[in-house]
Every structure is written in structure tokens, then in C-alpha cells.
Amino acid sequence: MSTHISELYKQVYKRLDDVTPLTVDCGELCDKLCCRGDEESGMYLFPGEERLFIENKNYSVLPTDFIANSRPVQLVVCHGPCTRTDRPLACRIFPFFPHYKRDEGLRIALDPRARLCPLTSPEATPYISKKFLRRLEKVFSLLIKFPEIAAYLEAITCSFDDLHALRKDFV
Questions:
Q1: How many other C-beta atoms are found inside a 10 Å radius of the C-beta of residue 98?
Q2: First to last CA, the chain
């Protein structure tokens, strides 16, 4: 992957700086549940994104058992409250994720791991910012042009689809 990947993510972050899922701080609805973690809870980093967090004292970057494109996916764990402009991409788009398969294309979907988030309830749908969702589509339409990112998204989409199917079987 290009050595300029860090710059690509910084551009993507900038495109997401002025949009959020709600027009208000959604953390007020749930007392910031998604920002409460421990030494092992965190967010997946997109390929190459770890370069932006590896030396940041506010975060730990850890390997996971999840493999995408023959490489372990990295997990970022934060060490306390952070500002939105310092967050990794997965935090900026939560509770959504880019569902991507080459033969099906790209769509923005709810992250199946986000069941703790009040924005995943059907009652929240009318309040989700359309501008935010359109921006996610634009950002990920750009990112899937990079083969390593596209492969990562396909791998995580398959994993999430399996998780969703498994939950249906046990609910």
C-alpha cells in the first residue's frame, strides 16, 4: 500500500469532520456507551490506518485474530475521552459500516456489533442525518478504489454477514 495512506485517511477524516449521525451529540442518548471500553475493547483499524495511532499515547494498537487480505486486522483501544478529530475511522462512522462486495457494490449498513447503540433501533431511523450517510457513501466509494481497502471491506462484510445470520439463528 502506498506510503501516502496516512494522508489519504487524513483527507477522509476531514471530509467527515462536519457530519455526524445526528445533529446533536448522540452520546447524550446513551451516556457515551460506545466510548467506554477496556484494555481489550476497541475498534478495527482500516488497512494502513494504524500508522496514525501507533505512536499516539492516547491509544494502543493491538493485533486481532481476524484476518483480512492475509493480514491480521489491527484493533485500536483508546485510553480515555478523546476529541472527535482524533478518532479512527471506525469511531467516526459508528454505528454504521460500509457493506461491500464486488458483485453487489457498496451500501452503508448498520454495524451488527452496534446493538448497544440507540441509533440502531428502528425508531431512530428518521433522525439519522441523510447528509452523514451520503458522505459515508462518497468516502467509501473513494476508499474502495484502493485494492487493499476493498479486500478488507469484503472480508469484514462477509464476517458481519455471517454474524448477522448467526444471530438470526439464535434469536
A1: 23
A2: 41
